[in-house]
């Protein structure tokens, strides 16, 4: 793979943290992409957490319609990631990022003023489609640049992808705080602020993003999809990654019910979410550095998936005791901590593995497909989980079944990871 000349040399001296060491060694392009992920999530999560309340309270939508609208947003985003990735391979990173930002700005402004159901649906679809354009572009280029960073001898590629994940999680933490302050005005103010954030991203990329990134060829020939669906190792990675996403989705499905049972309300839920975000922000780089010194990509994902399984098992073990109040919260906190530690191992490793499994010139397609296929698994798995909860099984059984899913996913992981992809 061609080495770009935009890489900054490694700094001498002893920085105070692994985060500083990694950041100082990044190229200007990688720094732009990492900051992009941070700002993307600030703008997005300033609006999304408050959408359901706005639809149900301010607009008076029925509960089923609120769920339908939220589902449409997820579908228009995750379901179309593969389309966005294919477009990135054909047209390059810059056009997709700029177009996606423009669409997100229009979507947020439209949502802020939408009062009829059809207008809300149109705005939500546009917001989701915007992410399907810019996210595969940014994520695939970060993965490609991380490989080059590794080849330059700066360290394992997973460190770059871990910093990228930590930046995104920081945005996820800051965004709702910003949105909560703006809700003191109204929901429209939060939407317009989110749009303003993406105006800044659009302007920054129009100024700083290269017209053509060296080493990234544009592929016009058809046939990439046929090759991808025959790539068993890549599809196996998608399934394993999908099991992680299904487990992570339980933060929003099974965990709220458990917190409600234990505490009598969902107030502790916000503290558990904050705990998860802060763990990623402050410990993602040290965890990745530890894993990089000891584990290859397959082992890193294996340990991560087993930690996630252990998180479900902790609640399953405590559930028959039916503890409530303060005594019932430690198992849920243990679940969140183990799930987050697993996430910190699985996500950088999976993203780092994709370039080794992707066809030359099709990294955007494969990056998008990782999200789309995994999203489909989550859609099916979440429906099954919801049905499982309705069966009135013994309290520990749903948690044990969910614990088994990441354990089984370990068997799906591709064998013999490429040496270049080692963590």
Automatic annotation (TrEMBL):
Transmembrane segments: 29-52, 58-75, 96-113, 119-139, 160-181, 187-208, 234-255, 267-288, 300-321, 333-354, 363-384, 396-413
Organism of derivation: Streptomyces javensis
Keywords per UniProt: Cell membrane, Membrane, Transmembrane, Transmembrane helix, Transport
UniProt-listed PROSITE patterns: MFS (PS50850)
Keyword Aminoacyl-tRNA synthetase: no
Topology of the protein relative to the lipid bilayer: Multi-pass membrane protein
Broad class of the protein's primary localization: membrane
Protein name (record): MFS transporter
Intracellular or extracellular location(s): Cell membrane
Pfam families associated with the record: MFS_1
Domain Major facilitator superfamily (MFS) profile positions: 29-421
Keyword Metal-binding: no
């Amino acid at each position: 793979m061609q080495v770009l000349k935009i890489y900054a040399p490694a700094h001498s001296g002893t920085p105070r943290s692994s985060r500083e060491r990694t950041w100082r060694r990044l190229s200007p392009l990688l720094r732009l992409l990492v900051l992009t992920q941070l700002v993307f999530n600030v703008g997005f999560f300033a609006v999304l957490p408050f959408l359901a309340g706005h639809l149900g309270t301010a607009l008076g939508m029925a509960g089923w319609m609120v769920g339908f609208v939220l589902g449409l947003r997820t579908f228009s985003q995750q379901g179309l990631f593969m389309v966005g990735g294919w477009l990135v391979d054909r047209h390059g990173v810059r056009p997709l990022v700029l177009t996606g930002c423009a669409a997100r700005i229009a979507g947020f402004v439209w949502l802020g003023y939408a009062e009829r159901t059809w207008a809300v649906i149109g705005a939500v679809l546009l917001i989701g489609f915007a992410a399907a354009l810019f996210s595969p572009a940014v994520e695939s280029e970060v993965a490609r640049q991380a490989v080059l960073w590794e080849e330059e001898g700066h360290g394992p590629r997973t460190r770059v992808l871990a910093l990228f994940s930590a930046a995104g999680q920081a945005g996820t933490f800051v965004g709702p705080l910003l949105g909560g302050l703006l809700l003191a005005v109204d929901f429209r103010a939060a939407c317009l602020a989110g749009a303003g954030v993406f105006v800044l991203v659009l302007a920054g990329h129009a100024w700083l993003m290269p017209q053509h990134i060296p080493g990234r060829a544009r592929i016009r020939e058809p046939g990439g999809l046929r090759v991808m669906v025959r790539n068993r190792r890549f599809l196996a990675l998608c399934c394993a990654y999908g099991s992680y996403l299904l487990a992570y989705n339980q933060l929003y499905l099974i965990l709220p019910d458990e917190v409600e049972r234990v505490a009598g309300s969902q107030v502790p839920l916000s503290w558990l979410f904050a705990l998860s975000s802060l763990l990623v922000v402050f410990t993602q780089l040290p965890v990745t550095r530890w894993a990089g010194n000891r584990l290859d990509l397959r082992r890193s994902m294996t340990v991560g998936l087993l930690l996630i399984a252990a998180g479900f098992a902790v609640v399953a073990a405590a559930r028959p005791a039916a503890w409530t109040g303060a005594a019932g919260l430690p198992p849920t906190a243990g679940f969140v901590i183990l799930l987050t530690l697993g996430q910190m191992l699985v996500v950088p490793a999976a993203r780092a593995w994709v370039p080794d499994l992707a066809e030359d010139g099709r990294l955007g397609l494969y990056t998008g497909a990782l999200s789309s296929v995994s999203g489909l698994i989550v859609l099916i798995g979440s429906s099954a989980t919801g049905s499982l909860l309705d069966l009135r099984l013994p309290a520990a059984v749903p948690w044990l079944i969910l614990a088994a899913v990441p354990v089984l996913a370990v068997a799906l992981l591709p064998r013999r990871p490429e040496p270049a992809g080692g963590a």
